[in-house]
Amino acid sequence: MSADELRARILALVAEYATEQWPAKGFLPGVTPVPVSGKVFDGTDVQHLVDASLDFWLTTGRFAREFEASFAAWWGLKHCLLVNSGSSANLLALTALTSPSLGERRLRSGDEVLTCAAGFPTTVAPILQNGLVPVFVDAHIPTYNADPAALEHAIGPRTRAILFAHTLGNPFDLDQVMALAEKHHLWVIEDCCDAVGAEYRGRKVGTFGDLATVSFYPAHHITMGEGGAVLTDDAKLKKLVESFRDWGRDCWCEPGVDNTCHKRFDWKLGDLPQGYDHKYTYSHLGYNLKLTDMQAAVGVSQLKKLDGFILKRRANFDSLRARLTPLASALILPEATPHANPSWFGFPITLREDAPVDRNTLIRHLDARKIGTRLLFGGNLLRQPAFKDIPCRVVGDLATSDQIMNGTFWVGTYPGLTDAMLDFIAASLAEGLGMA
Q1: Closest to 343 (Cα-Cα) out of 231, 192, 217
Q2: 209 and 320 fall within a common domain
Q3: What are the backbone dihedrals phi and psi of residue 95, each rounded to the nearest 5 degrees, phi first?
Q4: Which residues constitute the domain of residue 168?
Q5: Are strands 203-204 and 199-200 parallel, antiparallel or unpaired?
C-alpha cells in the first residue's frame, strides 16, 4: 500500500476507535458528574489530530495556516495569529503596543492601562509584566463587566490603553468604551477568551478594538487542548504581534520557509553589518509562544462546529435562567449587557445578602451531588497574594468586586450539558437553598 492509502486506512480506524472509546453515556443524577465546562469532540476531531501527527511536522504548518485564515474570516477580520494559550495572547497583544515602531503611541513604562478589578489574573498580568500600571475599576452586577459609571472617572493624564474581558461571554459596554477610547486616543484590547461569538449591536465582539484575544483551552468555545489567538485588522499590529511571538525577530518567514522578502541577505538594520541574515535579526525582546500543528488541526475540525456550540450555550443559558427564576428572591440572576447577545461561557449567580445559606455552603451542597461550580475567577484581584503589593491606581472602593469575591459562583452552560443535567442543577440549587 502507498503512504496515502495507509494514511486513509489509519484515519478510518481512528474514527472506529473514537466511536468505541467515547460512546454516548446516560445521565444518573448524583452519580454522573455535571461538569462546569469541558471539551465537546468527536471522531473527526481525533482524525484531524492523527492526520497532523502523521505529517510529523511538529511546529506550526498547514493546519495552522488553514485555521488562521478560516478563523479570521469567521470573525470578519484580516489577521489571526495562533499562540500557545489565551494568556499568551493577552501578553502578546499588550506587549505589541510597547514597540518603538509605534512612535509616540507606544506604551512606555509607567503608562496606565484601564482594567477591571474582578476577573482572570492573566488579563491583568501583562500590564505589570510590561512595566505598565493597571488602573482598576469596579465591576457591575448582574452583567459582571466593568461598571460603565466608573470609566470616565478612571482616566488620568498617563492613561493610554484599555484592556477588558467580556466576562463569561457577556459583552462589556462597547458604546462607552469605544467613545472613551476615541475621546482620549486610547488603545483598546478586547479579551474575548470567554466570549467567542458574542455580539454587541449585531456585531461580533473582538471587532471593535485594536486587538482581540481568544483562548482554546478545553473549557472554551472550541478547543485545541491548549492554544490561543490574537486577532486584528491592522497590518502593522499583526507584524508586531508576530515578531514578539517569534523570538522578537524582524523576519516574518513561516517555519521551514526562507527569503519571503526576497532580500534575506540585503538588509541593514541596527548596528549589524550590511546583509546580516534577516532570519537572525531581532527588532524586539520577544518570546517563543507558537503552538503545534497538531493543536491547530484539532482547531480546524472544531471550527466547523463553532456556530452550533454557540447556539447550544445560549439555549442552555436560557433554560437555566427560566428554571432558576423561582429562586430570584435568594439569587441575583445574570443579565445581558444592553444591546448585547452574549455567547455564554457560564451562568453566574450571586447570593443576596438575606439568602438562607452562604456561598460555600451552597457550592459544597452542589459538589456533593457532583455538580461542578467555579468562582468568578480571582474575585477582587487586589485581594490575591500575587497582586498584594503591585503598583496600581484604584478607582472607588471596589465594593462590588468584593461582593463578587464573597458571594458569586457560576455553573456550566457548555454544549455537553443535557436538559436532564440542567433540571438537576436547578433542583439541587432549590434544595440547597431550602426552597425546593
Answers
A1: 192
A2: no
A3: -60, -35
A4: 51-302
A5: antiparallel
Residues 219 and 180 in one domain: yes
The residue with cell 490575591 is 384
Question: Cα–Cα–Cα angle for 388, 391, 393, nearest 5°?
Answer: 100
Residue 146, pLDDT above cutoff 80: yes
The C-alpha cell at 178 is 469605544
How much is the average pLDDT of 159-188?
98
* Residue 100 · residue 332 · CB < 8 Å: no
For residues 9-21, give the mean pLDDT.
97
Instruction: Identify whether residues 113 and 176 lie together within a single domain.
Output: yes
Q: What is the CATH number of the domain that holds 366?
A: 3.90.1150.10
* Type of residue at 70: S
Cell numbers standing for residue 395: 478607582
Residue found by looking up cell 469567521 in the block: 74
Of the three residues 247, 274, 302, the one that is the final residue of a domain is 302
How far apart are the C-alpha atoms of 40 and 48, rounded to whole Å? Answer: 15
pLDDT at 236 over 80: yes
Which residues does the annotation mark as catalytic?
A: 220
